[in-house]
UniProtKB/TrEMBL annotation:
One Pfam family matching this protein: Glyco_trans_1_4
Name the UniProt record assigns to this protein: Glycosyltransferase involved in cell wall bisynthesis
Taxonomic placement: Bacteria, Pseudomonadati, Bacteroidota, Sphingobacteriia, Sphingobacteriales
UniProt entry keywords in alphabetical sequence: Transferase
Organism name: Pedobacter steynii
Superkingdom of origin organism: Bacteria
Length: 419
């Protein structure tokens, strides 16, 4: 049986984020085809989740790196990085001070990845841990996941086939962040170009780069030639939902705020769409499912009439029943796993173009798309006021998913890249 080492910043369990779900689905099949070793970081409080995953994946060799307190070398490395980027950050603060005028500007300033795209963000000991694991066996393939570990190719011996799985093109996300600022800055564009060059240069050190959508693959084809580029959308098994959508009594968003595209999307929706919808449909409710911090929730005081933040829910399909799923995502790349969850749950969804990017759903047939507040609200209103539109969209979306993105077809597509 062939030998593969997969290194990732996050343990692919529990299944409470799109990134974890994407890893879990692929690795769950790979472990039947390969001798899999999985290296990742974890905290002491994650031990229970690791034990649960070990029960599910008894044939996987787990190599966790336990994150505790930062060592002196970690602190020194962090200081050196901050010093190397000192002038960029200093100039950036000045640009933000004079340029930021709107609440969105301030939100973007606090969360943009422009000044941390080149940082590692994990203890330096994880690099040593990874190198030690590499010495334990002869790996035919070494697969690196997520932008945070993009520079790991330099540690992989030439005897192994080096694969990078790109869950989100960082330079695409940053370009979209820049487009949302209310002001233009030549300096911020320069930082963006510098980050993009770093990202593309790092990718060229791999033998293969695998994106999660055909759209991301086409974008990369314009800029790099050296590694083999492939796309492999995430397979999700069709859920056995008891939902039979007839009408909606609420809206639902799925995703935690620690992933900034989620936070920006919910902020945009609450600030621009929610009150107009409530004034027209007084009984309408909104549920934001996922981990959200109380200070953020409190900051929306006055906008939260009939809005709930239930956190993580055990029975997702029950929470989604009789609702319209909203995807007001305006930044990021890759694919939104949340949409596939909604389709499997048997409910219609309204999205922006960015939100549905990389998936096979068509506006007016499988879903409704709106990019402005007026378009987004209008799309929701059409489903609320129609007797059969929501059911028709939901039915078409499930048929499209089963034909275009069937689980078996996508698993075969991923396994083919290792041949």
């Amino acid at each position: 049986m062939r030998n593969i080492l997969i290194v990732t910043p996050y343990m692919p369990f529990p299944l409470n984020s799109g990134g974890r779900i994407a890893q879990f689905e692929f690795n769950n099949e790979l472990r039947h085809q390969f001798k899999v070793t999985l290296a990742f970081t974890m905290k002491p409080e994650d031990q229970k989740d690791l034990e649960e995953l070990k029960k599910l994946w008894k044939n996987v060799n787990f190599k966790p790196y336990l994150i505790t307190k930062k060592t002196f070398s970690d602190q020194l490395g962090s200081v050196l990085f901050r010093f190397s980027e000192f002038f960029n950050r200093l100039i950036g603060k000045g640009v933000f001070f004079f340029g930021c005028k709107t609440n969105l500007d301030k939100l973007l300033q606090q969360n943009t990845t422009l000044f941390r795209s080149k940082s590692f963000g994990f203890p330096r000991g994880f690099i040593d841990h990874f190198r030690d694991v590499l010495l334990e066996d002869s790996f035919e393939y070494v697969q690196v996941e997520f932008h945070q570990l993009i520079s790991f190719a330099k540690y992989i011996p030439r005897s192994s086939y080096r694969i990078f799985v790109h869950h989100e093109l960082r330079f695409v996300r940053e370009k979209r962040e820049l487009e949302l600022f209310s002001f233009k800055s030549g300096f911020l564009k320069w930082v963006y170009r510098k980050n993009k060059k770093f990202e593309l240069s790092a990718l060229e050190k791999y033998d293969m780069v695998c994106t999660l959508s055909d759209v991301d693959k086409l974008i990369l084809e314009k800029d790099i030639r050296k590694p083999l580029l492939v796309s492999s959308p995430v397979p999700i098994k069709a859920g056995k939902s008891a939902n039979d959508f007839l009408s909606a009594s609420k809206l639902v968003f799925l995703g935690g705020e620690d992933h900034f595209p989620n936070k920006e999307g919910v902020d945009w929706f609450l600030m621009n769409c929610w009150m107009p919808l409530k004034s027209k449909y007084p009984d309408l409710k909104l549920s934001v499912i996922g981990k959200w911090h109380q200070p953020t929730i409190d900051s929306y005081a006055g906008l939260l009439d009939a809005v709930s933040f239930p956190g993580y829910v055990d029975q997702l399909y029950e929470a989604l029943a009789d609702s319209i799923f909203i995807v007001p995502i305006r930044i990021g790349s890759g694919i939104r796993m949340k949409i596939i969850e909604a389709v499997n749950a048997g409910i219609p969804f309204v999205s922006t173009e960015v939100g549905v990017e990389g998936l096979c759903f068509k506006n007016g047939h499988d879903c409704l798309i709106g990019n402005t507040p007026q378009e987004f609200c209008s799309s929701i209103a059409k489903i609320l006021e129609s007797k059969d539109l929501g059911h028709r969209l939901m039915t078409n979306a499930r048929n499209t998913l089963s034909v275009e993105n069937s689980y078996e077809k996508l698993i075969e597509r991923r396994l083919a890249i290792y041949n």
